[in-house]
Automatic annotation (TrEMBL):
This is Cyclic dehypoxanthine futalosine synthase. Its cofactor is [4Fe-4S] cluster. The gene is mqnC. It catalyses: dehypoxanthine futalosine + S-adenosyl-L-methionine = cyclic dehypoxanthinylfutalosinate + 5'-deoxyadenosine + L-methionine + H(+). Its EC number is 1.21.98.1. The lineage of its organism: Bacteria, Bacillati, Bacillota, Bacilli, Bacillales.
Amino acid sequence: MVAIDQILERALAGERLELEDGLRLYESDEIEKMGYYANKVMEKWHPEPIATFVIGRNINYTNVCDTYCRFCAFYRPPGSDEGYVLPDEEIFKKIQETVDVQGTEILMQGGTNPNLPLEYYTNLLRNIKKRFPSIHMHSLSVAEIVKISEVSKKPVEEVLLLLKEAGLDSLPGAGAEILDDRTRKKISRLKGSWKEWIDVMKTANRVGLSTTATMVIGFGESMEERVLHSLRIREAQDVMKAEGGPGFLAFISWTFQPDNTNLKAERLPAEEYLKNVAITRLLIDNIPNFQSSWVTMGPEVGKLSLSYGCNDFGSTMMEENVVSAAACTYKVNTNHILQLIREAGKTPAQRNTKYEILRVFKEGEMAETDFVMQN
């Protein structure tokens, strides 16, 4: 059996790891060692001891969804008395509250609502940009894009172009879950294949939209599926960068939260999350930014992830409803994030969605405006 030290040294030297290497790392219990090397790889991308974060808000504009994922506690089927579509004015109010605390990003996502036409999205985006021209709309998942394409009977590329013209700035990586169809069919029979997810991301790249990539573990997937997920993300990034597009700006992984869902599973421990963060940082050698997932793992584990390959603490997440529906309700505000990053031995810096640094916080400096987390 190959010693993991050899694999780790090869990764640090810039050599690409492959399937067998990834499997060997997942078999190992030397988590701290893998974290050390993942952190060294991160430092090659980001030599300055800075950890970034973005001030943003999740807006779940609708919970109506006809995809019926077994792992989701948030959605309501079409026709449900508990289904909703937020009024535009309520969305504008939430964005104004974000701007008031110097927020720059809106992650607007919902279900695959079959009752909303393409014009709903284009009109909403135009009205948002008219009122808030500087806000970055990092919005709509792959599944939502595919649903809009089906409802409008227009190709995905045309839908993305129309949404971009209306004000969509970038596409989040939601819906990747595990990029292998065995697990995808088990957890979400109606959601598209892993190839469809990759294809939509490549199409977004072609029309000039940057994207992020994600991974969720804890569905009962095999270690091979985890490795394949990373390699498929890496291969897609190679293609997107070769095409001259912005590609994936960041990678984010987290663990499945089983409470209140139709998919029964054990909640994975922090060690498994940190191990996955480290291994994916070692496997995916062409995405510069790795983001912590304090929302699912808690602030203290989020802080630890900054020593396991993450260079970014993610979003302040002023509002969060999807993970919260699965009884996972960790909350932090901007000044708490500054504290956690400093405790990790890093200098905190506010960024925008493009990972451009807007402000570096000096030692002891706090945010002038802050907020209370909302659900």
